[in-house]
Amino acid sequence: MKAAVLDSTAVIAFLDPTDELHGQACTDVFHALNMGHRLVLPATALAELYQAAYRLDPEGGPASVDGFVAELISEVHPINKDAARTAGRRAEHTGLPITAALTLSVLDQAEAEYVLTADSDWTGLDQVVVVGVHLP
Predict the structure, then answer these.
(1) pLDDT score at 5
(2) What whole-number distance in Å separates Cα of residue 51 and Cα of residue 88?
(3) Smallest Cα–Cα separation from 118: which of 103, 73, 86, 72?
(4) For the whole model, what pTM was predicted?
(5) What is the tens place of the pLDDT at every residue in 50-107?
(6) 79 DSSP assignment
């Protein structure tokens, strides 16, 4: 089964109806599902989602994250030694933040077709789809 990795920014846009990319993030996530992709969420992205949830809505935010994961995510991908090594190398060579590099390392490990992100700084990276730009 094909896979798509979700970056935390894409999920935040999906979950937050006030986000300017909300509609497009919903379209892109559901497009991935309709194309038969299983959705993979790196454990680091999940931690970022919980951080945002506790900051924005300590009472209901974490439950929203839990519901999203239960309903749509096929796998929360752990970060192992190989992913950490790959991410460290990628971050050093590209200047990407380590969390971005970890997400991209999951792309390789999960044998995914692409990463979906709402971060326009990722535009032009191989196997990266920015919300609203284009889909494979």
Answers:
(1) 96
(2) 22
(3) 103
(4) 0.90
(5) 999 999 899 999 999 999 999 999 999 999 999 999 999 999 998 889 999 999 999 8
(6) -
Radius of gyration of the chain (CA): 14
If one compares 134 and 17, the residue with the highest pLDDT of the two is 17
Q: Which two structure tokens, joined as six digits, stand for 123?
A: 């535009």
Residue 131: pLDDT above 90?
no
**Domains of the chain with CATH codes:** 3-130 (3.40.50.1010)
Contact of 49 with 62, CB cutoff 8 Å: no
Report the amino acid identity of residue 107.
Answer: L
Q: Cβ distance 11 to 41 under 8 Å?
A: yes
Q: Residue 33's closest CA among 1, 62, 65? A: 1
For residues 2 and 36, the answer to whether their CB atoms sit within 8 Å is yes
**pLDDT of 128:** 86
**Which of 106, 59, 111 has its CA nearest to residue 78?**
106
The pLDDT assigned to 125 comes to 82
Cα–Cα dist 71/26, whole Å: 14
Q: For residues 134 and 111, what is the distance between their CA atoms, to the nearest angstrom? A: 20
